[in-house]
Amino acid sequence: MKWLRGNNKVIDRYLEEARAALAVAAEADDGDDAAAAAALGLVSLALEMSPRSEAALELRARALLALRRYRDVADMLRDYIPSCACASKADDSSSSSCSSGDPILSPGRDRSDATGFLCCFDASELKRRLFSKTKSSGTDQWRYLVLGQACFHLGLMEDAAVLLQTGRRLASAAFRRESVCWAEDSFDKRRAPASESQLLAHVKLLLRRRAAALAALDAGLPGEAVRHLSKVLDTRRGVLPHPFATACLVGRAAAFRAAGRAADAIADCNRALALDPAFIPALRARADLLESVGAVPDCLRDLDHLKLLYDAALRDGKLPGPSWRPQGGVRFGEVAAAHRALAARIQGLRSMAGIGIDYYALLGVGRGCTRWELERAHLLLTLKLKPERSVSFAERVELVDEHRDLDAVRDQARMSALFLYRMLHKGYAFIMSAVQDEEDARRQKAKDAAAAAAAALAAKAEESAIPIIPRFHPGPGGVFCRDMAVLGSSLLSRGGFDRGIPVKCEAMSC
């Protein structure tokens, strides 16, 4: 008993020091990783002595959260994730650990059952099962709050919304139970922090905007879908996790393509692949876009990359990437059929490699456009898609992948943006030459028409003009140069004497 009491004292001392270190890390502006790492070390020592200590487990989860090790938090509390299916063989082979006990949440719906990367999430069934299996004591409320924050940073927005909502309700219930014996002055001092509530409101706003974008795209309003997704991607209430931002970029690319803006759609696919080069929906979308504008060699390069990903998935028995990162509705059971269709598509495109690029579709102008329309479209695209501005989106995105850093994302985004920028310049030069040829043809046609009209007018004037009568002078011998009888008859006929028109005649003298 003395040994047990001594261990309890040591554990309590470790936990107190860990709490103090976490408080120091929380008070720092950018987070103190050294203090959080020290707290994690102290908590690990306490867990070696008491592996089932609830306080030690909570401090360990919060220390991992402070160190931005969100994947470790998800692995630690995997049974509490609503969309986690531990019975799946693919998840079992890819996950690092899975608890052997009964999961608190066991919904019969996997994330891969989603129809797409912009799918709306129905959390009613998850909430029902969650609240039916939640303990009435509410002592494990920290699990939902901490795991909800980790799921947000991992891009699992639906899971984060359900977990944060559950944790807030459990915290409110525990606060009401504990506040029965409190004095009135202690309510303000012991009020719970509002960070989780603010994060929950932010997650709900993002999900509503994404659902509105999907509804607008289904209704045939791609402009509205672009507006909603742009608000999501340009949020100023904090950074976005890169898995969620990647899915939103691919969704906005689909909206741009529906609106006939191929260059903007390709730019969004480039950004998505800069964040996650193994994101299958982004590769599919960019390959389709490049094929639609006639860039067959570049399309073949993306399809070859996609084929390599399919080969790796069939070899490993799972989709590429970690198990917690969704692949936009792509299921492992569909990979074999997609691989066969992709091989046939590649063979068909190799025979079309000589086809030129449709620059009209790339710049979004019609054939026979005017110079003003072409210059306006080119100016808007070059100002929006120039390589210097292509890396600005990375400042608002939070990377949670251990194998990629911000510099690598910027370099890849700049390279892909430079390639698209050069393609736009080539398209502008090609279409401008066609516009100049059409203008020269129209100008030459106008000149020929003007010359023909002038010739016809001159001919008509020559036919209807009165001839000029020269002044006659007598010769040296006093004889007229022309017969007066012929001249007189001509003047009388033109003057109107034969039609009865009075004409004023003047005397003619030699």
Automatic annotation (TrEMBL):
<dbReference type="InterPro" id="IPR001623">
    <property type="entry name" value="DnaJ_domain"/>
</dbReference>
<protein>
    <recommendedName>
        <fullName>J domain-containing protein</fullName>
    </recommendedName>
</protein>
<dbReference type="InterPro" id="IPR011990">
    <property type="entry name" value="TPR-like_helical_dom_sf"/>
</dbReference>
